[in-house]
What does this fold into?
Amino acid sequence: MTAATHSSVSPADADAADAVLLGLDPEQREVATTLRGPVCVLAGAGTGKTRAITHRIAYGVRSGRLMPASVLAVTFTNRAAGEMRGRLRTLGAGGVQARTFHSAALRQLQYFWPRAIGGELPRLLERKIQFVAEAGARCRIRLDRNELRDVTGEIEWAKVTQTVPADYPAAALKAGREAPRDLAEIAQIYGTYEQLKRDRGMIDFEDVLLLTVGVLQDRHDIAEQIRAQYQHFVVDEYQDVSPLQQRLLELWLGDRDSLCVVGDASQTIYSFTGATPDHLLDFRTRYPQATVVKLVRDYRSTPQVVHLANGLLGQARGRAAEHRLELVSQREPGPDPAYAEYPDEPTEAEGVAGRVRDLIAAGVPAGEIAVLYRINAQSEVYEQALADAGVPYQLRGAERFFERAEVQKAVLALRGAARSGGSDDPLLRDVVELGSQVRAVLSSTGWTTEPPAGSGAVRDQWESLAALVRLAEDFARSRPGVTLADLAVELDERKAAQHAPTVQGVTLASLHAAKGLEWDAVFLVGLTDGMMPITYAKTDEQIEEERRLLYVGVTRARHHLTFSWALSRAPGGRASRRPSRFLNGLRPGSAVPGSRPGGPEAGAARKRGRRGPALCRVCGRTLTEAGDIKLMRCADCPSDMDEGLYERLRDWRAGQSKLQGMPAYCVFTDKTLMAIAETAPAEPGELSMISGVGGRKLERYGADVLAICAGQEPAGADPDDA
It folds into this structure.
């Protein structure tokens, strides 16, 4: 490793550097040209954050202010790092290192290990689950496959939070971890696992970060050599850093502040892995002189999708919510988000499959459509519905339902019981009804009628088996008199049908697996209380993370967005479910949480742009169409709009649009201007009650609009102050 130096720049180089800035919006351009000192980029979903930071690096390189080898760009997935390297090559900055935290640390550890420790670096343990299993056996603690996965997750969490085995029980208790076993048992397994690795000369991925941190803390000469090599750092998805990754970053930096971080606290959905948005939110505290740039121009989604996403976060609480970004769509208007209520889950899946088929027929590619759900166990009914509809699909982030180990084991047990006819199985004696037979057989594989507490693999396994039970019950209901043998045949046929080639099919994915992706059309399904938010989200912090998870799902959609839920699990079941509380105040006819008609809460809700049932101010009928709700009257009811005022507002809006370099509808839509011209508000409170005039726009444009309504000339606004 050699120290990087700066080079002089010729006029021709300057022209080439300026070319990198072409096409950037004002905020992206500020990110790209602010090359010194700490920079914090608060970037909302779809606002072009990767574009901004790659152009920042390329501008620095091509202007001669940054040497390629002096820059280290860090992100969280190999896919994101690869995308960043590709963009940098295209922009003429191919020598820049873009890596994950683990990749960058491993590279440094391999280089410096002989000098710092001596000998060769221990072998890297690719899959730690086998060692965890052996550690459990040595502790005489038997773990099934799902407990193995969950205990492994607890060990990973402990290591990224820099918690040693002896401190694990207290730390887990303080953090409210839903542990799969007794905390003392996990601590014992954790300690034995660490000893096994030491005995065999191996390290795991978390050790890579821990050891790199240790080397840099103990060997100042090595730390200084790395700091001489890497003088400028860029960290993407900064809201997802763990305490261990943050410590490594601090050691890379030393006493310097040439750091650019990019993140969005509203997309923090991995706290269970140790990620925390605190480092992002505390950036200005650590660096009071930092430049903070907000990217809020959304180039991904239509105004309708963006408006709903803003409304969803508008109801959020907590520290992350206090720093939420209000997005402004840069796209042409599209269809309003759709809401669909179904009597039961199979009907919901069939309805979604039908809508998917209609979109494909209308020209939307299957690969540009996604069905997103909260947990992987929800996939089976959608796999079947799409297969029945002849729609190809692909699963992301999960095995196919019938390829899951617990499902294969259960199907094998059911097939065995079907062959014996139940005569030799004491569990099946005197059990006639198919659903009861299936529950009895699955009880031998670990099935219980009540779901386990907490989340993770154990819960996923239970949900998978619960889906099999429901499948059997529905099969028996549709074909009275069927046997276990008939069910076994049905399962084989379903498995065969769902393994057809699914190239470029509709994506089926959990909301967590959808992070970082986008589609033209997104279906958010199963949105009932108990699933969204999930039933084991108990604390305020957990509930808010569930809200952020739904927000991530909403912001995956470019054009079409559909929400759906089922009032009961099975056909004919009691309609006891309620739509997700997160949709209250957003879907037509729903009330804002805690509001009552005409009360002060309702007025406050209107000021925030969130309403309960909206009534026409002319005829009193309930309004359901978004445009009618904005005007607060039916489309066919008479308008008392001041045409002259409307035209003056349009002229003012055109000037603001040109001044700020944004589409006119991003200032106010035509419907909002019509509503203003119809009501002619005289004071801020009246203006704030008009749909489309939120707190941010009231502060930015309120004085101008009220002046125009009063027949006066607006004072105008400096876009830099906006």
Observations:
- The first strand starts at residue 39 and ends at 43.
- The mean pLDDT is 83.
- The CA atoms of residues 433 and 716 lie 75 Å apart.
